[in-house]
Amino acid sequence: xxxxxxxxxxxxxxxxxxxxxxxxxxxxxxxxxxxxxxxxxxxxxxxxxxxxxxxxxxxxxxxxxxxxxxxxxxxxxxxxxxxxxxxxxxxxxxxxxxxxxxxxxxxxxxxxxxxxxxxxxxxxxxxxxxxxx
Length: 133
Hints:
4 helices; 4-stranded mixed β-sheet
């Protein structure tokens, strides 16, 4: 009897099953992130205008931040505060559901926000430097 190869049907099946699960889960997991940053084409975020203008940026911890205080009016500041309240609540909910620390969840979403953001948006790095995508 021959020795089973490393590509035995069981291993191939398990690998395919894992790949299929990841492919099916990816769009579902991306939806909350898209909602948080307003990347869904049908529902633009109210922060898109201020972000496009460089007045608002995104932080390393998954929160929005006023970048240009001189050009941010009370409405923009209030909007940033509201968005951050929603994001914090969502990060806490996800952390509780996944039994993970909130900062770890927020950092994952911050990375995703950066990846999904269009060129021109500003990001505040953990070292305090602003970088434009």
